[in-house]
Specification:
Layout (H helix, E strand, L loop, with lengths): L1 E9 L1 H14 E8 L6 H10 L5 H10 L5 H5 L14 H13 L2 H11 L5 E4 L6 E6 L2 E4 L1 H5 L5 E6 L7 H9 L2 E4 L4 H9 L2 H9 L3 E5 L14 H10 L6 E5 L9 E2 L2 E6 L11 H11 L4
Helix pairs in contact: 1-3, 1-12, 2-5, 5-6, 8-10
Length: 292
Amino acid sequence: MSSASLVALGGGHGLAAALRAARLVSDQVVGIVSVADDGGSSGRLRAELGVPALGDIRRCLSAVASDDGLLARSLEYRFDHGALHGHPVGNLLLAGLTVAGGDLEAAVAEVARLVGAEGRILPATSTAVTLVADSDAGTLLGQVRIEHAGGIRNLRFNPERPPASAAALRAIRDADQVIIGPGSLFTSVLACTVVPDLRRAVAETDAQRVFVANIATDRAEARDFGLDDHVGALLDHDVRVDVVLAPRGPETDGIESVHGIDVVAADLAADDGWHHDPKRLADALADLLPRR
């Protein structure tokens, strides 16, 4: 296993997939997670308790957990009736620790300790944020509205400059490889990387910056986007990358670069054809490390 430091940014299932792969490459892994979700259990807890969105953090803690004990196995358990209907155990645990201790980062670290996390999970911002974007339908507020819209552009936040985690900034600065994506383009990948201080840290790091392209795109926010469109959206938001890691297929046949950025095609897809296979993604990321 490599001693390189790998830092992955994003949210949702995509970041969890990147972390599962990164764990197979190195024992120095950090996940930096968007806290902008305002739907589902995360949205309810935000409205009721004023905490940042916790669902993506919970999912990433599950991805790096090494303990097979009851707590680790229960993080994803979702209540199916009563007042707690729809809430996963992990969200409630994180919310309780955050409110009781007054510190989201400390709450995440405590759950990570309890589940034997192989890797560190950090929130992208220490306070709750609301995503704002321009679209074909006008200005939109909130992740849920943005993820169902088209023509998204100029993604930003309210408040405009939310404070980033100091630990996250250090991790990016000290990394050997920074992994951006996969995941929903605007509401996961950019929802994390356009945090102003994180974006600046990504621009200034000496690490190799890898954009991991999706296996498939079916969300309204980026429906029919090709590889060129995804990379273009990153550049439009001043998110800089050094190499694009994309699934081998018709879209990458004969393609060596996009927007002047090197494209490396590899077998990344799981057998279902929709998700990244952790081992295949890990092998591809490890192969890229010497390219720094």
